[in-house]
Structure formats: structure tokens, C-alpha cells
Amino acid sequence: SSKVKTTVRKLNGLRHISLGNLKKILKITKGISVSREYIRKAQIMTNKLYWRNPSITTCNYVSFDVQWIPVDEEWNYLHVLTDIDKNEIVAIKLTKDEETNTSTNFVKEALRIGSAKAILTDLKPGYLKISNELNMKHQLCSIHFRKAVSEKIRKILSRHKTIIKGNYLNENPDIPEEKLKKHVKEDMKEIIEEYNGYKKEIFEFYDKETYKEAQKCKLKLKTKSRDYPEALRTYLDNEFFPIHSNFILYKHRDFKGKIPRTNN
Predict the structure, then answer these.
(1) pLDDT tens, 175-188?
(2) What one-character-per-residue DSSP string does the chain give?
(3) How far apart are CA 119 and CA 135, in angstroms?
(4) What b/e string do you get for 208-238 counting C-beta neighbours within 10 Å, with b at 16 or more?
(5) What is the mean pLDDT of the chain?
(6) Is pLDDT of 91 > 90?
(7) What per-residue string of b and e applies to 86-108 under the rule 16 or more CB within 10 Å gives b?
(8) For residue 192, what are the contacts with CB-CB under 8 A and spacing of at least 6?
(9) Could you give the CA distance from residue 134 to residue 108 in angstroms, rounded to a whole number?
(10) Shortest CA distance to 68 belongs to which of 35, 50, 95?
(11) What are phi and psi of 23, to 5 degrees?
């Protein structure tokens, strides 16, 4: 516990005490047994906001994420690099920002020697710079993509709902609230069903067994999407089709069974 570590440091601050004697003092005063190695590590103190796992020298496949952390009533950013093979943290760093250069430098610093074969991240655009600079293949999280598509469709549907509601109010400003809701809900049914169909077609991309089948599915989707509503078609053209292979790297024969489809 932190209290035991504090005790070790306080005792050691009195005068030089050997690890063996510290071990005995803890046994006498606290009634607990700890190893000499534990006592040695408990005395190591640092002000650095960066830590790297000394037991990991090289990595083949890594997962990267940035988490928001409240520090002194401000948001800071905890960068975390994980070794997928070993299921262990490679390095962590607390920073004041999550800019692309900050993240790229962190991954470079953490990997040290060479680079990994592949990196798994969420959909933040800047993360592609990391894989490009370090010459790694890039797997984008499938869960984040599903959430992104669903959120895009939710916003589109919300706009449809606003327009429909506005039309009813223009025709009849005194329409009762319950009646208005009923009309809007009824009119939205067909639109919702339409967009659920688009969503199903998009996510079918992930259901294919092999990388080759998924590539064929993408080609079909690109043809189908020409008839999609403009907002959804534009989103796919800008955010999906140019980097579609990064969403199915885990299906490729060189990476199958070596990286997961999500970093969640």
C-alpha cells in the first residue's frame, strides 16, 4: 500500500538503513513481510510524468489510446501504449495536450528501437500520422467506427425530425403537443427504417470472413452509396472509403489472429 511505501521512505530518511534492516523494522512495526526488492523499489521516487516498462524491449503489435484525466481541476491527457502480444503496458505519459505531435513523439519514445509491425487506435485523424512516420500498419477500432456511423445517422435523423416538426407547426401553430409528437413519430418511421438499412449495408463490411471478401463488399458498398442521402454519402467518401483497409487489417492473412478489431 502507499502507507507502507511512505513508511519505508520516512525510515530511510532518518539515517542510512540497509534493505535487510528495513525489512526487519517493517516486520516489527507493521507485522508484515515484504521482500528486499519491494523495499528497493519503494524508495525510487521521480517527478517525471513518463514511465516505460523496463521488461519490454521490443514490440510487434501495439495498441494506443489517450484518456482524459482531471488533474488540479484541469483536464490532462494520459497517453497509453500497450503490447498486444504480452497484454502489458509498454509506456504511459501524462501531458497537457493530445496534439498529434505529442502523441507521435510519445509512441516514438516508447518504442525506442525500430517500430512495431502494426498499431491499433481509435479514429482520431492525427493517429494516421503516427503509423505513417513509424512505418507501421494501422488498424482502426471497429467499435469506434460503428459509433461514429451511428452518431452521424442520429444527427441526420435529428435534422429530419426538426424539419418535420417545423412543417407541422407552420401549418398549425396551435397543434397540441401530444398530437404533434404522434404525427412526427409516424412520419419518422419510414425515414428511420431507411437509414437503418444503410447502416446494415455499411456494417456488412465487417461480417465478411476474409480480407478479400471484405474488399469486395467495400466495392459493392461504394456503388450502393451513390444513391445514399448526400450527408451520409459525403461522410463515407471522406472518412471511410479512402482508408477502408485500415478497418479490416485484422482480417489480412499477415495479421489474422495477431491483432484484435478493437482497442476498447
Answers:
(1) 999 999 999 999 99
(2) -HHHHHHHHHHHHHS---HHHHHHHHHHHH-----HHHHHHHT-----SEEE-TT----SEEEEEEEEEEETTEEEEEEEEEETTTTEEEEEEEES---HHHHHHHHHHHH-SS--SEEEE-S-TTHHHHHHHTT-EEEEPHHHHHHHHHHHHHHHHHHHHHHHHHHHHHH-TT--HHHHHHHHHHHHHHHHHHHHHHHHHHHHHHH-SSHHHHHHHHHHHHHHGGGS-HHHHHHHHHHTGGGGGGGSGGGSTTTTTTS-S---
(3) 10
(4) beebeebbebbeebeeebeebeeebbebbee
(5) 89
(6) yes
(7) eeebbbbbebeebebebbbbbbe
(8) 157
(9) 8
(10) 95
(11) -60, -40
Residue bearing the bigger pLDDT, 5 or 146: 146
Nearest-angstrom CA–CA distance, 187 and 3:
63
Q: What is the pLDDT of residues 1-49, one digit of tens each?
A: 778 777 777 776 666 678 888 888 888 788 888 888 887 777 665 556 8
What is the CA 170 to chain-centroid distance, rounded?
44
Cα 129 vs. chain centroid, distance in angstroms? 16
Which residue, chain included where needed, has cell 474488399?
215
Mean pLDDT for 76-102 is 92
For the segment 101-128, what is each residue's pLDDT rounded down to a tens digit?
Answer: 999 999 998 987 667 899 999 999 889 8
Query: Per-residue pLDDT tens for 149-178?
Result: 999 999 999 999 999 999 999 999 999 999
Phi, psi of 240, rounded to the nearest 5 degrees:
-120, -60
Helices 211-224 and 177-207, interaxial angle, to 10°? 140
